Amino acid sequence: MSTRSALLTFLLVVPLFAIGIWIGQNINPLPIDASTNASVYDELFRVLFSIGSILFLGFVGLLTYSLFKFRRKPEDKGDGLAIEDNLPLEILWTAIPTIVILFVGLYSYDIYDRMGGMQSLEHAGHNHESMVSKERIWGGIGSGSIGSTKESLNKELFIEVTAMQFAFLFHYPKGDIISGELHVPVGQPISMRMESKDVIHAFWVPEFRIKQDVIPGQPTILNFTPTKAGKYPIICAELCGPYHGGMRSTVVVEEQKEYENWFEKNSKTPITKT
Amino acid sequence: MTISIQPQDNSPKESLQPKGWMTYFSFSLDHKVIGLQYLVCGFIFYLIGGLLASAMRIELTSPISDFMPRDVYNQVLTLHGTIMIFLWIVPVVNGGFGNYLIPFYVGARDMAFPRLNAVAFWMIPPSGLLLISSYFINGAAQSGWTAYPPLSITTPAAGQIIWIISVLLLGGSSIFGGINFIATILKLRRPGLKLMNLPMYCWAMLGTSILVVLSTPVLAGTLVLLSFDIVAHTGFFNPALGGNVVVYQHLFWFYSHPAVYIMVLPAFGLVSEIIPVHSRKPLFGYTTMVYSILAIVVLGFVVWAHHMFTSGTPPWMRLFFTIATSFIAVPTGIKFFNWVATLWGGKISINSAILFSCGFIINFVLGGITGVTLAQVPFDVHVHDTYYVVAHFHYIVYGGTVFVIFASIYHWYPKFTGRMLNENLGRFHFALTFIGFNLCFAPQHWLGLNGMPRRVAEYDPQFAFVNQISTVGALLMAISTLPFLWNIIQSAFVGEKSGDNPWNALTPEWLTSSPPPVENWLGEAPLITKPYGYGLKEESEKLVSEEDIDVNLTNQ
């Protein structure tokens, strides 16, 4: 490669990277991040969006350029250059995707770990041994708190979720509350054990960036910690019948006080305050 | 380049194609007739599947369920998926172009098992009609093309059973075709033709057929078990009887992920034929292209559980499938770089075939990038089962494979009929399709990220506007079919005569008359060891003058 073309490549690649990184960092197509999971997720998203933009724009640019630059002149009936291969080039573009994939893979492993994906199973087992001890439970992503310590595990709020055509039911064992709406306090690590009565459903809160199928005959768990007060939709994401599109509920994330009010109003057993 | 062609006999060309159009409705054993039967039959099902897609997009114009009843919507989405996969893309890129081209590429006069070949084709129209008729009998299946139990067990049984029977028949047809391709490519090659001399499409079809033969039986077995659960009330997948629904998903995706490569690899092969011809350059990196196809075949078998990241899978399994899936990007990336390198420095004719091929590259790169993001477990748990996934796989199968099917029709139509397609109509078709497609599916990435699940007839009103944009795109795609249909019909009668080799191509199918004679070549099949020898001027010119034949470069 001559110095001139090397310089030219450099001059083109730098703005490409700059544009790609700018797009990833500044264009945010995601809804608000309302759980500890969501902010970690958004970090991953921004990185993937940057890498994706660089690759896509680079590729489209290269393709469009070659289409214009190398288009046939009307009178030209000849052939192009008979280049059949070029080992260094092919090594280069085996290396590009490999490096990108290795980086993305390692990075998303790190994100997965920070979301608690690697520990969710033991986690559930420790805390609610009575309920899950002999069952094989498959977990969802997301321990609630950042670096779930023993303390945070202990103050986890446990909720049982039952899905059926076409509704979710939330059972709070502590106050024996059954509700069609999920109420959770801000900053409180939540642990949910989910099971379906009929077909497969999925519990999805876009603002929390978590999803887990709710399966009949096979309990699943899902943990999260809400961070922003507000009302967010709970959406069923797995085709479950004619009214699948209407199978929605709401999660109400509220301040501790409001939550306690709600809890007391609906509780069937008196609460022992901790 | 070594061509040893017998001088073509220029005596009056008797019986170029099987005589009479009725042959195309008969149990013909001619691979060219069967190939065109696949193509036309597939295209008719494409129109039906497209109508169903339009119906869904009309329903989704408004956030409430108002265009059709909810259960009908689920039937429509099930039929749309099943028809597009099993009756349009798989039969057309494998059976259609495969049957037409592979015997030419290996220098044979027909496929290895012509009768099996005809049986494989004739299984398709009845199973397609059966599938569609189920809608009028008692309502079609309504559990999606994935037919996850227990939903598929609890929805009306008649439609689901008919769905299973027709998918089993189509799977059988696909296996017959796969066996035939493997036998033809490995055993029917002209003497002297080595595997590494074959055009890339042969390699793609060899890889695809291995996937078909090894994975389709798993789907068949799974669907038979599912039908036992429905009819005989066994409990394989019925949790009420102690069955396990996640096992079904593993078995289903063990076929259905390789099915993606069954739809995409042949398209890679076809594009590898088209780009060198129209850019007048050898296919860049032949050897790496072959190895990357083989790598995709091997990796394709160990990635299925990435469809199940939210289903209930242990962490180690999620990580394994994340890594395996991500690595498919490496061989795929190599292929895309090689195609661009093939264009680079060429003399590209910007015609409909090359426009659709480049459209394919752009769409597929975007679909591939979203594919890598979907392979990451932490990313996928948010967007799984949403419109992000819908956008992703339409970028792969429509933006990828269907664009290649159109490119291939523009490229090989002169071979099929001896007439050219109208170029202006072709460019108009490309512009409409490309704009319509991107307008329809690009906004769906946003929908998925923001909370719209797939397979819903009603949705949050905040998504109405973006859905309407998407519907406009779908409408453009529907309209884009019209100039294409008009083009292929009228060109068959009044299209400009193409001559035998309008593109001055070097691949073997062009080194005979267009349309080809029944036995493919009047003399012996040519030995083409460099099917992409463009630009190797001295050699080819020498050969041409020595043997005094007008088969390739001197034609125009």
Describe this structure in words.
The complex is a heterodimer of chains A (274) and B (556). In chain A, a hairpin with a 4-residue loop joins strand 3 (167-172) and strand 4. Chain A folds into two domains: 3-67 and 87-114, no CATH class; 120-266, Immunoglobulin-like (Sandwich). Chain A contains seven helices and eleven strands. Chain A has 274 residues and is α/β, with parallel strands linked by helices. Chain B is mainly alpha-helical. Chain B is 66% helix and 0% strand. Mean pLDDT of chain B is 90; it is low at 1-16 and 541-556. The interface between A and B is large, with 87 and 100 residues.
Helix percentage of chain A: 40-55%
Tally of domains of chain B: 1
CATH C-level of chain B: Mainly Alpha
Rg for CA atoms of chain B? 23 Å
Helical amount among residues of chain B, as a percent range?
55-70%
Structural class determined from secondary elements of chain B? mainly alpha
Rg value of chain A = 26 Å
Mean pLDDT over the full residue set of chain A: 83
Order of helices and strands of chain B: HHHHHHHHHHHHHHHHH
Low-confidence stretches of chain A: 122-136, 142-152
Fill in the keyword field for this structure:
heterodimer, A: 274 residues, alpha/beta, Immunoglobulin-like, 2 domains, six-stranded mixed beta sheet, five-stranded mixed beta sheet, 7 helices, B: 556 residues, mainly alpha, Cytochrome C Oxidase, Chain A, 17 helices, 66% helix, globular, disordered N terminus
Short description:
Chain A is α/β, with parallel strands linked by helices and 274 residues long. In chain A, 42% of the residues lie in helices and 22% in strands.
SSE arrangement:
The complex is a heterodimer of chains A (274) and B (556).
Chain A: H1 3-26, H2 36-69, H3 87-114, H4 120-127, H5 129-132, E1 138-139, H6 150-154, E2 157-164, E3 167-172, E4 177-179, E5 182-185, E6 190-196, E7 201-205, E8 210-214, E9 220-224, E10 230-236, E11 248-254, H7 256-266
Parallel strand pairs in A: 1-9, 2-6, 5-11
Antiparallel strand pairs in A: 2-3, 3-4, 6-9, 7-8, 7-10, 10-11
Chain B: H1 31-59, H2 70-106, H3 114-122, H4 124-138, H5 151-154, H6 157-187, H7 200-231, H8 245-279, H9 286-300, H10 315-327, H11 329-343, H12 352-375, H13 377-383, H14 387-417, H15 423-450, H16 464-494, H17 537-547
